[in-house]
Amino acid sequence: MNLNIITYCMYLTITALLIIKVGQRCYQHGNTFVMHLVPGDKDFCLRINNILLIGYYLINIGYAVITLSGWSTINSIEQMIESISNRTATIICILAVLHYFNLFWITKFIKNIK
Amino acid sequence: METSKIFIGYLIYLPIAILLTYFVSKTLFKNGKVFMIDIFKGKEDIAIATNRLFEVGFYLLNLGWALLILRINRNNFNNSYQNLIEILSFKIGGFAMYLGFMLFLNLYLFFRGRKKSKQSQKISNQGLSNPTSA
Description:
The structure holds two protein chains of two kinds. By secondary structure, chain A is mainly α.
């Protein structure tokens, strides 16, 4: 079997697990967080959180699938580890930046939205 | 034979980097909970939630960076165990220093949050006490 296809399978499983896990965690704890910032309006908080979650899934899954097209040919297991780690790292770094940005953005501007 | 040494290097580097991140963030956020409870004035649920959010961010940032610097360049690698040890020590040492820097950054954020919450508490206390004294 082609090494590239095995790599794609591993990459997709890893990123899917990662994205879903982080999304769930942020949604769960973010709910408490937003609820504290906008006290007394449960519906609004839930809506904001849902929108954030959907945007997050769209950006990350879209990016993960798009980057599949640009892989170089893989000849050995070392190259496989290298390329998987490199791509996963890019996604994780994007996630981290988005996460911190979201935290900052929510605390700063949530009062103005309402 | 050349590639297999690089492979051994990856197998050594990955567990060390992941375990290092795990232990650092465990220590930081076990103690960070106390800070958070202090910042949010004893409201435990929001304190724990914020702590978890910061933890997720910390893990993402550090694991992402660890994976990003994993790659060993084949052109600079002259196929000896000595060279492998040198490269690995450079990578792991650099990563540990990066982790330390991130730790202090997070600690700074905690202290800043504590200071801000103390200030706002003071202002609200003054606001409360002024009308009664006037």
